[in-house]
Design a protein that fits this description.
214 residues, binds D-xylitol-5-phosphate, globular, alpha/beta, 20% strand, 8 helices, binds zinc ion, single chain, TIM Barrel
């Protein structure tokens, strides 16, 4: 299992230390949650912080934009070191164009689905995607409870990927710990995002290892 710790739960007063710790862990990605207070009811952080993260870490930057009109920020995300750029299906009027633009900018393209958005809506774009992000909480906050129906959606995404011959990986974001991680791993997930589970653990490196071994 690929592990993408969500820095939303990190201590930003000690960001360099947190990144140094994660560099020693088996996490392959760093998950960067950008929130605008419009698409979601919370505001997090964005480009200046991303630049620092990119400078301080060698990990793959997995950028999750929970913002309206994400297509406006493709070049900025790339400039700040983004490797994977994930936009929300619900936030894009021209999702097909946005995916092409992300790829043209030299990044991998991901699309995230809110808990209320069905997987079948991806059928015409799945072949172009590098990643599908199944939200297992309503986006906006870390530390929320895992929504069980996400497991069914992971299975559906897997079926769609196989049917359409897509190379997209399946990521699950929200409420992930070893138990919920096992459920989505068995359903076919390739990547788990984990915020509070990793950062509130007395041993975050061990928490990442447990997820990695799922
Ligand atoms: C939620 C974010 C998640 C969040 C995950 O809106 O997209 O990435 O940080 O945090 P946990 O793992 O605590 O649910
Ligand atoms: Zn996220």
């Amino acid at each position: 299992m690929i592990v993408s710790p969500s820095l939303l739960s990190a201590d930003f007063g000690y960001l360099a230390k947190e990144l140094e710790m994660l560099d020693k862990s088996e996490a392959e990605y760093l998950h960067i949650d950008v929130m605008d207070g419009v698409f979601v009811p919370n505001i997090s952080f964005a480009f200046p912080v991303m630049k620092c993260i990119d400078r301080l870490s060698d990990k793959i930057l997995d950028v999750h934009l929970m913002i309206v009109e994400p297509h406006k920020y493709i070049d900025e995300v790339k400039k700040c070191g983004g490797d994977i750029m994930t936009v929300h299906y619900e936030a894009c009027t021209h999702i097909h164009r946005t995916i092409q633009q992300i790829k043209d900018a030299g990044m991998k393209a991901g699309v995230a689905l809110n808990p209320g958005t069905p997987v079948c809506l991806l059928s015409e774009i799945i072949a172009d995607l590098d990643m599908v992000c199944i939200m297992s909480v309503n986006p906006g906050y870390s530390g929320q409870e895992f929504i069980e129906n996400a497991v069914n959606k992971v299975r559906e995404a897997k079926e769609l990927i196989v049917k359409k011959g897509s190379k997209a990986l399946i990521q699950v974001d929200g409420g992930i710990n070893v138990e919920t991680g096992k459920l989505v791993a068995d359903a076919g997930a390739d990547i788990v995002v984990a915020g509070s589970y990793v950062f509130s653990s007395p041993d975050p490196i061990e928490a990442v290892r447990l997820l990695h071994n799922l």
